[in-house]
């Protein structure tokens, strides 16, 4: 069947698609043989099927009239229905129970008693529910007394007030006494009624139900939909007036809601009793435990239950749609029904639009995933309106098993204060905590190969059933700039796509490059973000730029030994992935940087397409051996530096410890203390420049030299992102095997004569 689902509860066992019947059978068996009075709590959130389960229990009780069981008289009280009235909810419950007791078997005297109670509940009690008034007598010039009334008096008493104000009565004390007499009489009648009711109600149950091998079963439904104070009224009425032998109560409620209400309502009372603050939160739990003797927590639906639930109702729904709903939705029958109705509507709408050629073909499974996001993950859905590529990022993370490793930016330790507020995260990190969402995204059709416009089709379709029906925020210039500098990959890619679509890529690239200039006042966080954005937009800087290093002596090593080198030119930056890609394009026989190791995955190139990792065009190339570096140099008409040449270019002539001076500064280099945890775009630390203008001489990656130490062992210089600052000192060195391919080692090139013979010399 393909009709829309209503939100009506299950009426009988034949319409039970949730397999609740076995719960109902056991609970009915328990109460029919239990000591009474007893209260059973059916606990679960809204829409979990509490009403359906109670309907099935009621059916079981009414149909199970065997010799081995008591018979049941059922009273159904829908608290939400009566909560719309202005009167007290507890009074409505008492009246409904009295109605359920009436039958032709009741004696004339007891029937009259019930009629009397009904009348008195409607008269005396209602006057205590109409609020209170306060008369500020001093302002009226009638005496120094502020009179507060806890009930609205009779019309006769109001007449006395009017006479007093007109000076037609004797004294203020007389009218106060009149009010007091009226209030006392009402409360006296009220207390008398309630005392009579409890005793009389116990007599009626004993005489006409319990004494005749029966029990009165009262179902209280939708209590958690009432205002908090009124819900507690009903619970107290059950305990005070109806909790007598022969009675069974079923209460359906969201336990968390009631416990929160009780905590608030009774906190001041408990504090007055000398309880310490730590015990107050237990009040809600203790309160329910006192009232409910048998708690039953309705278990959430399992994935296979939801799938079967959907299959029974709509066996023609595509399996991908069913899987998306069963894996991603909240395990709540009401939520599942609503989501399925939405999906059906949208599939029909999409079918019409495809026929009219206003949109391309729709994949039902992807539409189902978007419906789940819209229904269950509202914040994510709103973010998708601005950043459609977030769907692809989350899908990739789900399928790769990426987990949240931090809740703040990795740059938090780089600057004086956190770069983001505590607990902040990128868009991707924000949603990686939602396990059902990730389970859903792992299976079925993927968003991965769709363009931004194609993803938007699914978003716009679902917006017809969402309150977010306005136009998606446009990627205005200010927003695009902010997203580019957010250090959030998802926001960055969305803004890059937007500026490219508008033909503004070059303009934005030039503006971002200016943030990397030495005279820029941009923060390190902004420079890192600018470098990341340039990797996507295209980096306008001259990354092939060479710097002149004059010949002469310099202080070499930790001891400052005087050493002579001839003049040469050296690359301002380490060789980047983008530069190395040009080399590979002209040498198709040469392999790409790749290692089948987990630690190498973020830096591995795609072997068949021969492309570097996304977003790393301007990062230093790594996973290159000495042979790889020499091959590049030969292609580029250059060579590798000796370690003496590298050191002079990094520290100048004066023997400084770091390229900028004698003290380490994490604002000037990407070392382990800087907290980055990986390579960074070249040149984002202009404050770390050497005396000859070289960048990234300290940290980021070690760099190959032609200086040899033992058989097939060569010197690397400069430290790296994973080594400590002491290894980034200009005189520090490490030894690496010529065939080593590491995510910590890159290189830069040199031209000019070489002072001594080395590997690759000309």
Q: Explain this structure to me?
A:
There is one protein chain. With 762 residues, this protein is α/β, with parallel strands linked by helices. It has four domains: 19-127 and 189-297, Rossmann fold (3-Layer(aba) Sandwich), CATH 3.40.50; 131-178, no CATH class; 303-473, no CATH class; 546-751, paralog of FGE (formylglycine-generating enzyme) (Alpha-Beta Complex), CATH 3.90.1580. Strands 2-5-6-1-7 form a five-stranded parallel β-sheet, with helices on both faces. The protein has a four-stranded mixed β-sheet with strand order 14-13-12-15. A three-stranded antiparallel β-sheet has the order 8-11-16, covered by helices on one side. Helix 20 packs across helix 21 (489-501). It is built from 26 helices and 16 strands.
Note poorly predicted spans: 124-166, 268-282, 406-424, 469-473
Q: How many structural domains are formed by the residues?
A: 4
Mean pLDDT across residues? 82
The count of β-strands is 16
Q: What fraction of the residues are assigned to beta strands by DSSP? A: 5-15%
- Give the helix tally: 26
CATH class category name of the largest domain: Alpha Beta
CATH architecture descriptor of the largest domain: 3-Layer(aba) Sandwich
Q: Give the strand order of the largest sheet, numbering strands 1, 2, ... along the chain.
A: 2-5-6-1-7
The chain-level structural class is alpha/beta
Distance between the termini: 82 Å
Task: State the major sheet.
Answer: 5 strands, parallel
Give Rg in angstroms. Answer: 39 Å
- CATH topology title of the largest domain: Rossmann fold
Silhouette: elongated
